[in-house]
Amino acid sequence: MAGLPRHLRFTVEDCIRTAENYVGGPVSMASSYAMPGYADPAGLPPTALLACEYDDARGSTELFAAELERAGVPVSCFLAQGAVHGHLNHTAGLPEGQAALDFLAGELLAVRRA
Protein backbone atom coordinates (compact mmCIF):
# COMPACT_ATOMS: atom_id res chain seq x y z
CA MET A 1 0.00 0.00 0.00
CA ALA A 2 2.81 2.40 0.80
CA GLY A 3 3.90 2.37 -2.84
CA LEU A 4 0.57 3.69 -4.11
CA PRO A 5 0.31 7.37 -5.02
CA ARG A 6 -1.56 9.54 -2.50
CA HIS A 7 -4.59 9.98 -4.79
CA LEU A 8 -5.21 6.20 -4.60
CA ARG A 9 -4.97 6.04 -0.80
CA PHE A 10 -7.53 6.57 1.96
CA THR A 11 -6.19 7.94 5.21
CA VAL A 12 -8.22 7.68 8.40
CA GLU A 13 -9.14 11.33 7.91
CA ASP A 14 -10.31 10.62 4.34
CA CYS A 15 -12.50 7.78 5.56
CA ILE A 16 -14.05 9.89 8.31
CA ARG A 17 -14.74 12.79 5.91
CA THR A 18 -16.28 10.44 3.35
CA ALA A 19 -18.49 8.71 5.92
CA GLU A 20 -19.61 12.01 7.46
CA ASN A 21 -20.45 13.35 4.01
CA TYR A 22 -22.42 10.17 3.27
CA VAL A 23 -24.46 10.21 6.48
CA GLY A 24 -24.76 14.00 6.73
CA GLY A 25 -23.05 14.38 10.08
CA PRO A 26 -20.99 12.54 12.67
CA VAL A 27 -20.74 8.82 11.98
CA SER A 28 -21.61 8.11 15.61
CA MET A 29 -25.08 9.53 14.91
CA ALA A 30 -25.64 7.42 11.77
CA SER A 31 -28.45 4.93 11.48
CA SER A 32 -27.47 1.30 11.17
CA TYR A 33 -29.23 1.41 7.80
CA ALA A 34 -26.52 3.82 6.63
CA MET A 35 -23.63 2.13 8.43
CA PRO A 36 -24.56 -1.55 8.88
CA GLY A 37 -21.09 -2.38 10.18
CA TYR A 38 -21.94 -0.51 13.38
CA ALA A 39 -25.00 -2.66 14.14
CA ASP A 40 -25.76 -6.27 14.96
CA PRO A 41 -25.78 -7.95 11.53
CA ALA A 42 -28.13 -10.75 12.61
CA GLY A 43 -31.11 -10.88 10.29
CA LEU A 44 -29.43 -9.18 7.36
CA PRO A 45 -30.03 -10.84 3.98
CA PRO A 46 -27.37 -12.84 2.16
CA THR A 47 -24.59 -10.42 1.36
CA ALA A 48 -22.01 -10.14 -1.41
CA LEU A 49 -18.88 -8.13 -0.63
CA LEU A 50 -16.25 -6.93 -3.06
CA ALA A 51 -12.84 -5.96 -1.69
CA CYS A 52 -9.87 -4.60 -3.61
CA GLU A 53 -6.32 -5.83 -3.14
CA TYR A 54 -4.95 -2.29 -2.94
CA ASP A 55 -7.50 -0.49 -0.78
CA ASP A 56 -7.01 1.05 2.64
CA ALA A 57 -10.67 0.19 3.34
CA ARG A 58 -10.14 -3.51 2.63
CA GLY A 59 -9.80 -4.33 6.32
CA SER A 60 -13.27 -2.99 7.08
CA THR A 61 -14.71 -5.21 4.35
CA GLU A 62 -12.97 -8.25 5.80
CA LEU A 63 -14.14 -7.35 9.32
CA PHE A 64 -17.73 -6.91 8.15
CA ALA A 65 -17.60 -10.29 6.38
CA ALA A 66 -16.39 -11.96 9.58
CA GLU A 67 -19.16 -10.28 11.60
CA LEU A 68 -21.77 -11.44 9.09
CA GLU A 69 -20.45 -15.01 9.27
CA ARG A 70 -20.51 -14.97 13.10
CA ALA A 71 -24.12 -13.79 12.96
CA GLY A 72 -25.04 -16.64 10.62
CA VAL A 73 -25.64 -14.42 7.60
CA PRO A 74 -24.66 -16.05 4.31
CA VAL A 75 -21.82 -13.99 2.87
CA SER A 76 -19.83 -14.24 -0.33
CA CYS A 77 -16.59 -12.30 -0.65
CA PHE A 78 -14.44 -11.55 -3.63
CA LEU A 79 -10.97 -10.04 -3.55
CA ALA A 80 -10.27 -8.14 -6.76
CA GLN A 81 -6.60 -8.94 -7.34
CA GLY A 82 -4.56 -5.98 -8.55
CA ALA A 83 -7.46 -3.56 -8.11
CA VAL A 84 -7.68 -0.26 -6.23
CA HIS A 85 -10.70 1.26 -4.50
CA GLY A 86 -13.23 2.46 -7.05
CA HIS A 87 -11.74 0.49 -9.92
CA LEU A 88 -15.14 -0.36 -11.38
CA ASN A 89 -15.71 3.33 -12.02
CA HIS A 90 -12.68 3.47 -14.28
CA THR A 91 -11.54 0.07 -15.52
CA ALA A 92 -14.57 -2.13 -16.12
CA GLY A 93 -13.04 -3.25 -19.42
CA LEU A 94 -9.78 -4.37 -17.81
CA PRO A 95 -9.23 -7.85 -16.35
CA GLU A 96 -9.43 -6.58 -12.74
CA GLY A 97 -12.81 -5.04 -13.46
CA GLN A 98 -14.18 -7.96 -15.43
CA ALA A 99 -13.47 -10.48 -12.67
CA ALA A 100 -15.26 -8.28 -10.13
CA LEU A 101 -18.23 -7.75 -12.45
CA ASP A 102 -18.43 -11.51 -13.09
CA PHE A 103 -18.55 -12.10 -9.32
CA LEU A 104 -21.30 -9.52 -8.81
CA ALA A 105 -23.31 -10.78 -11.77
CA GLY A 106 -23.05 -14.35 -10.46
CA GLU A 107 -24.28 -13.25 -7.05
CA LEU A 108 -27.27 -11.48 -8.58
CA LEU A 109 -28.11 -14.53 -10.68
CA ALA A 110 -27.97 -16.72 -7.58
CA VAL A 111 -30.47 -14.46 -5.81
CA ARG A 112 -32.73 -14.43 -8.83
CA ARG A 113 -32.76 -18.24 -8.93
CA ALA A 114 -33.44 -18.59 -5.20
Describe this structure in words.
- The protein has helices at residues 12-23, 58-70, 95-113; strands at residues 47-54, 75-84.
- The protein is α+β, with helices and mostly antiparallel strands.
- The chain has a two-stranded parallel ribbon with strand order 1-2.
- Strand 1 (47-54), helix 2 and strand 2 form a beta-alpha-beta unit.
- The longest helix is centred in the C-terminal third of the chain and has 19 residues, at 95-113.
- It starts with 11 loop residues before the first helix and ends with a helix.
Please outline the helices and strands.
Blueprint: H1 12-23, E1 47-54, H2 58-70, E2 75-84, H3 95-113
Parallel strand pairs: 1-2
Number of helices: 3
Q: What is the strand arrangement across the widest sheet?
A: 1-2
Which percent range fits the helix content? Answer: 25-40%
Tally the beta strands: 2
Main β-sheet description: 2 strands, parallel
Task: Give, in order, the helices and strands.
Answer: HEHEH
Poorly predicted sequence stretches spanning 5 or more consecutive residues: none
The whole-number mean of residue pLDDT values reads 87
Radius of gyration: 15 Å
- % residues in beta strands: 15-25%
Structural class: alpha+beta
Termini Cα gap: 39 Å
Structural shape: globular
Supply database-style keywords.
114 residues, 16% strand
Short description:
With 114 residues, the protein is of the alpha+beta class. Helix content is 39%, strand content 16%. It starts with 11 loop residues before the first helix and ends with a helix.
